[in-house]
Amino acid sequence: MNGAAATLAIDAGQTSVKLRLRSGDRAAEWSAPGIRTDGPLLPQLAAVVDRAVADGRTFERLALGVSGLESSHAEAAELLERYRPGGVRSVHIAHDSVSAFLGALGDERGAVVAAGTGVVALAVGRTEVARVDGWGHLIGDAGSGYWIGRAGLDAVMRAHDGRGHPTALTGHVAADFPDLERAYLELQADPDRVRRTAGYAPAVTAAAAAGDRVAAAILDGAGRELALSALAGLRRTGEADAERPRVRGIGGVFAAPALAAAFIRAVRADHPGADVAVGESNPLDGAGLLPEVAATSALAARIATAGT
């Protein structure tokens, strides 16, 4: 496929879906509501692409990094069959950990932690690839926006009960739930409870910046959890033995300075010479790179491709 082929790149996350259509030197970007990882993904992805087609967008390659994706080969084949009549010649689809990695480090070695509403880490060595976490809000996603938001709500209820220290977060949560003792009932009944819970993460960040020690401890814990995922990935791929392993933290939660500092501090406590940085990627860039990954790359086996 010629590098000049028009490519529709999609970063499909739980909070939002970001799209970029690139044709030659021209590019256009827009967004759509996030996907639900607790339901079938293919109809949701097709709906996003259908809207792009309905808006008059034309493209030859479709490249998708998708949160919650497990079996991607069938999805790639079905999407190609669906859009081939409109001129699509190839579909490239991978878990969003792969597109996040490519957006941060390209086809190189190291570990990338992508943290928004959820979180997933991917580490790539010379021949090995290791995914860490990304197991959803029920049994994973440690350090994610959901994890932070839930920890904030937990801290408020602990303070309310007398089990924990007072926190400025109480006022913020009480503005949404005047009767705190009924908050859990409303949240449980909300079908959008994951994003709603993650929506409290900015309040935790603001409270920490204002000096709230409870909120600061939550962000510090989140940063350490995210570092733990990166370090586990380095060990599993042999990159922990590198002289200067590369580690990147990307996604919305790293916009919190206290969390970013805790992440960097925890990585360097284990690897003092690590090349570690935050905020230096856009997973949408990585989705656009999926068609360019070489067949010899350790990542190639993680990308499902249909067409040529």
Write the layout of secondary structure elements.
Layout: E1 7-12, E2 16-23, E3 26-33, H1 41-54, E4 61-66, H2 73-83, E5 90-95, H3 96-105, E6 110-115, E7 119-124, E8 129-132, H4 136-139, H5 145-161, H6 169-176, H7 183-189, H8 193-198, H9 201-209, H10 213-237, E9 246-250, H11 257-270, E10 275-278, H12 283-289, E11 304-307
Parallel strand pairs: 1-4, 4-5, 6-9, 9-10
Antiparallel strand pairs: 1-2, 2-3, 5-11, 6-7, 7-8
Description:
Strand 1 (7-12) and strand 2 (16-23) form a beta hairpin. This protein is α/β, with parallel strands linked by helices and 308 residues long. Helix content is 43%, strand content 20%. It has a domain at 7-95 and 284-307: 2-Layer Sandwich (Nucleotidyltransferase, domain 5), CATH 3.30.420. The longest helix is centred in the C-terminal third of the chain and has 25 residues, at 213-237. The strands form 2 sheets. It has a 6-stranded mixed sheet, sandwiched between helices. It has a 5-stranded mixed sheet with strand order 8-7-6-9-10, sandwiched between helices. Helix 3 (96-105) crosses helix 12. The mean pLDDT is 93.
Could you name the ranges where pLDDT drops below 50 across 5 or more consecutive residues?
none
CATH architecture annotation name of the domain at 7-95 and 284-307: 2-Layer Sandwich
Order of helices and strands: EEEHEHEHEEEHHHHHHHEHEHE
SS strand fraction: 15-25%
Question: Cα distance, first to last residue?
Answer: 6 Å
| Mean of residue pLDDT values | 93
CATH topology of the domain at 7-95 and 284-307: Nucleotidyltransferase, domain 5
From the alpha carbons, calculate the radius of gyration and give it in angstroms. Answer: 20 Å
Spatial order of the strands in the main sheet? 3-2-1-4-5-11
Q: Count helical runs.
A: 12
**Share of residues in helices:** 40-55%
Shape: globular
| DSSP strand tally | 11
Largest sheet: 6 strands, mixed
